[in-house]
Design a protein that fits this description.
Order of helices and strands: EEHHHHEHEEEHEEEEEEHEEEEEH
Family: Belongs to the alkB family.
Largest sheet: 7 strands, antiparallel
Protein name: Alkylated DNA repair protein alkB like 6
Organism: Trichoderma simmonsii
Bound molecules: 2-oxoglutaric acid, fe (ii) ion
Subcellular location: Nucleus
Keywords: Dioxygenase, Iron, Metal-binding, Nucleus, Oxidoreductase
Number of helices: 8
Distance between the termini: 39 Å
């Protein structure tokens, strides 16, 4: 169980709950042991601030100190990060994936959705049922014309991503983050996909253009991402091998064989069904699993930001100064 102990624009500093109490002069009420036990059992290492507020209600006034409660006091819509990605690992998947339910705040979500909506019409590429934007531009023969991402796609998402260590045991010199080994040590491309209810994306692999780390921020609504195996003959096994719920404001990171060996897709349905701890691999990490207690998720429009590092970058764009407007 973690509480915020302070805040920076990039990464709020987190403290283990235990250490907060070891610094306090007050003993912990036994009710709290029960609460913290429940919290740990439910969700790995962190819970929503709404739950935290409940918890703080039962604390004596001097425990914990107000500084540690800043996050809770600021309301339920703040971003909330673990101290490292390890705490967010989806442990029942065959290779590395992470799910962070509160990666951005409600206000940040609203600002990004506003910027997407304000983009000039030609920015949208209309597919048969879905529309998308690419930033800073489309790839040409798997190559990106060198140009910066606009500031509203850079901050807070990229800065926050790069501030998140892979594990807690890194010492001193800089954070070893999820893009530490990629060619540009950061994502340089964002695909924005908009999915109205009933619309998904066919099972596919993302291909050779990108470093095999995919960071997806979800906005607006929840839906299920399906992961598929190929059969031995190369054909797609139509039954998803695993399903991941992506809640609004969450970050999902997939890597390794999930990139190279498995396919991913979103069903063309108006409602996700059969949702439970047995069928959804990130159930213990969800912000609000209770919202899916009926086993159903009626779809609303969900927008995703897919951040990746394009391997090949052509300097021509930068030289012409074509894409430097933010
Ligand atoms: O929207 C998503 O979560 C998936 C998007 C995707 O797979 C893609 O654009 O390649
Ligand atoms: Fe994809």
């Amino acid at each position: 169980m973690w509480l915020f102990a302070g805040s920076s624009p990039h990464r709020p500093l987190l403290r283990p709950f235990d250490s907060i109490f070891s610094q306090s002069s007050q003993s912990i009420p036994s009710r709290l042991f029960f609460r913290t036990g429940c919290l740990a059992h439910w969700g790995g290492s962190w819970r929503s601030s709404r739950q935290l507020l409940l918890l703080l209600d039962i604390l004596p006034a001097r425990v914990p100190s107000p500084a540690y409660c800043m996050m809770a006091a600021r309301g339920i819509d703040d971003a909330w990060l673990p101290s490292s990605l390890e705490a967010a690992r989806i442990t029942s998947l065959p290779s590395t994936a992470y799910y962070l339910p509160n990666f951005i705040s409600e206000e940040e979500e609203r600002l990004i959705l506003d910027r997407i909506a304000a983009a000039p019409r030609p920015r949208w590429k209309q597919l048969t049922h879905r529309r998308l934007q690419t930033w800073p531009s489309d790839l040409v023969q798997n190559k990106l014309l060198d140009a910066p991402l606009p500031s509203w796609l850079e901050t807070p998402v990229v800065s926050r991503l790069l501030s998140l260590p892979l594990s807690d045991d890194g010492q001193g010199d800089g954070v070893r983050h999820i893009f530490a080994e990629s060619p540009h040590q950061r994502p340089n491309h964002v695909l924005i996909n908009e999915y109205p209810p009933g619309i998904g994306i066919m099972p596919h692999k993302d291909g050779a253009a990108y470093w095999p780390v995919v960071c997806t921020v979800s906005l607006g609504a929840s839906l299920c991402l399906n992961l598929y195996r190929s059969k031995e003959d190369g054909a797609l096994d139509p039954e998803p091998a695993w399903r991941i719920i992506q809640e609004p404001r969450s970050l999902l990171i997939t890597t390794d064989t999930l990139y190279t060996d498995y396919l991913h897709g979103i069903s063309d349905i108006k409602e996700d069904l059969d949702l439970s701890a047995n069928t959804i691999v990130n159930w213990p990490l969800l912000r609000d699993a209770e919202a899916f207690a009926s086993g159903r998720n009626p779809r609303q429009t969900r927008t995703s930001l897919t951040y990746r590092d394009v391997l090949k970058v052509s300097k021509v764009g930068a030289k012409l100064g074509l894409f430097n407007k933010r």
